Structure formats: structure tokens, C-alpha cells
């Protein structure tokens, strides 16, 4: 009984980091895609230089989103047209939705699967 | 009496007294060649003569121009033919001459000094211009405190009787006529140029602090200056603008 219990908790301990890591990645992706949308909104405003209102961290997060999205679209079919649309969809996902997702299923859902 | 011109002091002595004793310049005065040339030009402008005749003692006043100081080019009797004339100056006009030197330092040209001394309306305009340039220089680039002498000088400029009132010397160690520094003797013109540059420089910095990088860049491109602080900001703004432009281009390339 005791050893089974210990074994079970060990397994759980091993599995948990992977789940939370997936959560972090998903959250980062959503955050990054939000930054990406903000940067392009800034760019499209007249008389604005996007760099002035974008911090280094924001730019890097946006770059992460763009990279993940482009790579996913290279390997998978997707409802969204172009990386910009897919990134917008991801950025518009509500917070509770992405709570327990990993990247693959998150991207899949944003692609309409 | 002033009519007895032989007892008038020599111009060279007057100049030495004014420059060394009153303005504190160091001897020998021959080291300040540019200054002496400027002052001689000024003296000749203040006592205009017809071109011929100075060297042989037959000089005549130019009646078409105002005479503000009296000079006399009588040759010294005991010198041999061909030696230089000694120029003498009416002692009653020494104060005016001294003030004129300071005015020349500020305004640069003897012509302006003469206008200053002969026309009240122009004098007011010139005095206002000088006050504005000197006093309105409160800027981000900073210019330090103004000396009391300069403030008094500017106060006396419009209306004081320059034949009798001694203008305080606003220049610390060197008169602008010496030609030291970037102004090459024309202090007010340089100040005006500097003030224009400072206003542009201030605008540039203010835009930058307001995150208006595009406007700051426009000012930076138009700015020409030697002010080290402004140059630093200018370089910084140009660099940031280039990077911001690169970022925008990058964003466009990804679309």
C-alpha cells in the first residue's frame, strides 16, 4: 500500500512539471501574440514609430509568437490565412481557455480543429 | 583748452590706458594685434576724414559723416620726413571712445556703433536686441550665470549719456575684437546664431523627451551647432531614429 502510494506520487510528480510547462508555453504564446497585435496596431497608426512604444521584452515575445505560428503553419493545415490571422486568433483566446492547454492543442483549436 | 591740440594725449597712450588699466588686459599690447587693428578702425570711423592728406599733415574732416571723437594727425615737428604721424585724441572724448570700444565688442561693426551713437531710435533697437540675446538665453543647454557687469551694461545701454557715463566692461578677460573663439569678432551675430541653434536644440530635446522621435529627428537634421551637449543629444536621436526606422521596415517585411 505504502509503496504503491509512493510510486503513484512519484509518477504524479514527474508528470506535473510537463503539464505546467505546457501551460507556461501556452500562456507565453498567447501573451506574445497579444504583443504582436499591439506592435502592428502601433505601426499602422499614422506618425508613429512603433519602436518608440515597444520595449525589448515585448518585441521578443512578439517574435516568439510569430516564430511558433509560422512553424505550425508550415507543418499543419490551418483554417486561418497567414500567420497574422492565426496570431490574432490566438491573442483573442480568453484566459480561462488557455489555462490547461498545451501548445499543440492550443494551436489546433485556433486553427479550427 | 581743447584747441591746443599739441597737449592732447596720443591715441596710442589712450588705448593703452583704456585696455590695460581699465579693461585689465596684459601688456605688451602688441600681442593683441587683431584687437589693436579693430580699435584703430573704430577710431578712424568715429573721426572720418577725407582720404587724402593724413600723411602730410593736410588732412580734413569729412563733413558728410558725423564726427564723434576728435583726432588730430599733426606730424611731430622733431621727427624726420617719412616717420609715422602721431595721432592725438581730444581728452574730452576719451570716455566716449572707451564706451565705443565696448560697443564694438558687442555689435561687431564700427558702422553699428556709429548708428548707435547718432540715432536715438536705432540705439533703442540695438539695445533691445542686445538685451534680448543676452538675457533670453535661458535654455536647456544652459549658459551659466550672467555677470553683474553684463546686467549693468545692458541696463545703461538704451539711455545713458555715453560721453560721461562709464559703461562697465561686460567681458571678463578677452574683448571680442581679439577674434578668439568662433565668433571672429562679431559677438552678437554669433550669439544670434547660437540662440537660433539653441532654440532648435531645445525643441529637439523637448520632442525627444515627449517620445516624439520623428519630430526630434527633424530638428536634429536641421541643427548645426558646436555645443557639446546638443551634439550628444543629436547623435543619440539620430541613432534611435535609425533603429526605429529599421524596426518599422522589419515589421513591414514580415507582412
Q: In brief, what are we looking at here?
A:
Chain A contains four helices and no strands. By secondary structure, chain A is mainly α. Chain B is mostly helical and 255 residues long.
- Give a count of the beta strands of chain B, DSSP E runs of length 2 or more: 2
**Helix proportion of chain B:** 40-55%
**Large-scale geometry of chain A:** elongated
Q: State the distance separating the first and last CA atoms of chain B.
A: 93 Å
Shape of chain B: elongated
The portion of residues forming beta strands of chain B comes to under 5%
Structural class of chain B: mainly alpha
Evaluate the radius of gyration of chain A. Answer: 18 Å
Strand order of the largest sheet of chain B: 1-2
Uncertain segments of chain B are 139-145
Number of helices in the DSSP assignment of chain B:
9
User: What low-confidence regions of chain A span 5 or more consecutive residues with pLDDT below 50?
Assistant: none
Residue share in helix of chain A: over 70%
Number of strands of chain A: 0
Structural class call of chain A reads: mainly alpha
Main sheet characteristics of chain A? none
Average pLDDT number of chain B: 81
Written overview of the protein:
The complex is a heterodimer of chains A (113) and B (255). Chain A has 113 residues and is mostly helical. Chain A has four helices and no strands. In chain A, α2 crosses α3. The longest helix of chain A has 43 residues, at 2-44. Chain A is elongated and about 70 Å long. By secondary structure, chain B is mainly alpha-helical. Chain B is 53% helix and 2% strand. Chain B has nine helices and two strands. In chain B, strands 1-2 form a two-stranded antiparallel ribbon. In chain B, α4 packs across α5. The longest helix of chain B has 27 residues, at 228-254. Chain B is elongated and about 95 Å long. The model of chain B is unreliable at 139-145 (pLDDT under 50). Chains A and B meet through α1 of A and α9 of B.
Amino acid at each position: 500500500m505504502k509503496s504503491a502510494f509512493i510510486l503513484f506520487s512519484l509518477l504524479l510528480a514527474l508528470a506535473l512539471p510537463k503539464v505546467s510547462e505546457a501551460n507556461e508555453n501556452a500562456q507565453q504564446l498567447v501573451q506574445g501574440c497579444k504583443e504582436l497585435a499591439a506592435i502592428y496596431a502601433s505601426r499602422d497608426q499614422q506618425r508613429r514609430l512603433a519602436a518608440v512604444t515597444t520595449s525589448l521584452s515585448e518585441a521578443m515575445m512578439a517574435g516568439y509568437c510569430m516564430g511558433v505560428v509560422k512553424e505550425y503553419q508550415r507543418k499543419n493545415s490551418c483554417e486561418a490565412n497567414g500567420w497574422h490571422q492565426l496570431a490574432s486568433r490566438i491573442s483573442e483566446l480568453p484566459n480561462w481557455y488557455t489555462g490547461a492547454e498545451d501548445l499543440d492543442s492550443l494551436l489546433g483549436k485556433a486553427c479550427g480543429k | 583748452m581743447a584747441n591746443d591740440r599739441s597737449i592732447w594725449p596720443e591715441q596710442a597712450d589712450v588705448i593703452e590706458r583704456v585696455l590695460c588699466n581699465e579693461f585689465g588686459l596684459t601688456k605688451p599690447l602688441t600681442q593683441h594685434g587683431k584687437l589693436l587693428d579693430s580699435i584703430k578702425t573704430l577710431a578712424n570711423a568715429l573721426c572720418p576724414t577725407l582720404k587724402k592728406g593724413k600723411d602730410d599733415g593736410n588732412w580734413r574732416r569729412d563733413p558728410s559723416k558725423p564726427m564723434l571723437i576728435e583726432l588730430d594727425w599733426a606730424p611731430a615737428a622733431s621727427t624726420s620726413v617719412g616717420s609715422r604721424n602721431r595721432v592725438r585724441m581730444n581728452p574730452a572724448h576719451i570716455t566716449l571712445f572707451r564706451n565705443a570700444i565696448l560697443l564694438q565688442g558687442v555689435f561687431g561693426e564700427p558702422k553699428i556703433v556709429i548708428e548707435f551713437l547718432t540715432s536715438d531710435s536705432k540705439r533703442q533697437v540695438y539695445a533691445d536686441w542686445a538685451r534680448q540675446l543676452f538675457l533670453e538665453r535661458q535654455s536647456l543647454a544652459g549658459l551659466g550665470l550672467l555677470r553683474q557687469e553684463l546686467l549693468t551694461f545692458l541696463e545703461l545701454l538704451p539711455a545713458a549719456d555715453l560721453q560721461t557715463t562709464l559703461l562697465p566692461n561686460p567681458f571678463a578677460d578677452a574683448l571680442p575684437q581679439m577674434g578668439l573663439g568662433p565668433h571672429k569678432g562679431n559677438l552678437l551675430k554669433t550669439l544670434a546664431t547660437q540662440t537660433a541653434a539653441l532654440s532648435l536644440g531645445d525643441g529637439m530635446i523637448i520632442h525627444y523627451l515627449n517620445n516624439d522621435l520623428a519630430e526630434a529627428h527633424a530638428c536634429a537634421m536641421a541643427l548645426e551647432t558646436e555645443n557639446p551637449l546638443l551634439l550628444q543629444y543629436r547623435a543619440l536621436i539620430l541613432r534611435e531614429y535609425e533603429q526605429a526606422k529599421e524596426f518599422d521596415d522589419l515589421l513591414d517585411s514580415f507582412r
